[in-house]
Description:
mainly alpha, 11 helices, 0% strand
Amino acid sequence: MDRRISKILGFVALITLIAVPVIVLKQLGIGKAEIQAFVEQLGIWAPMGLFVLRFTSVLVPALPGTAYSILAGGLLGFWKGLAVVCFSDFLSCSLCFWLASRYGRQVIRKLVGDRFMGRVDNFSQRHLEGNFFLMTAFLMSSFFDFVAYGVGLARTPWQKFMPALVVSIAVSNPPFVALGAGILAEKKILIFALGGLFLLALFLGWLRRDQGLPEA
């Protein structure tokens, strides 16, 4: 399939994924108050469930993770949702890095599968440990889980990996969480979300052209 058509279909699928639940909720008369009441009834299980879903989607890269960031913003609100997603990403990426550093390719191959092992190897061979900016930039992309595995395989010192991970999480997660919060509950931050996603898309477009970031 042509890459341009594939991108368009992916964008349409994402919009559909976001729009359909919103339309259904509006038809059922469910708004911000009802969502908050539902989440309060779930108690600690709502953030814990989203934490586990996001954590698993990073540890096993074949699973989609962006939807969980959007869902966290919609169900928990911006700040709580952001805290859950960022904490999950920090722990899961740290685990990916440690597993790769400690056990090597054979264990990572079992986690990601033969289909995606090539991407892990691609990032492990880029020598990102020598360039903090590039390591941070690649961790901000949708391939951040593969990058965490890759730099681990490259035996990158954790003193270099951790700062890059923290910066990338702080920059790349807020727009997606804000999108969920803006659509489902807090519409005033929707402009921030869209602006942040636009800037992130521009940055990743440059990274793809200039540094050979693979297509999603």
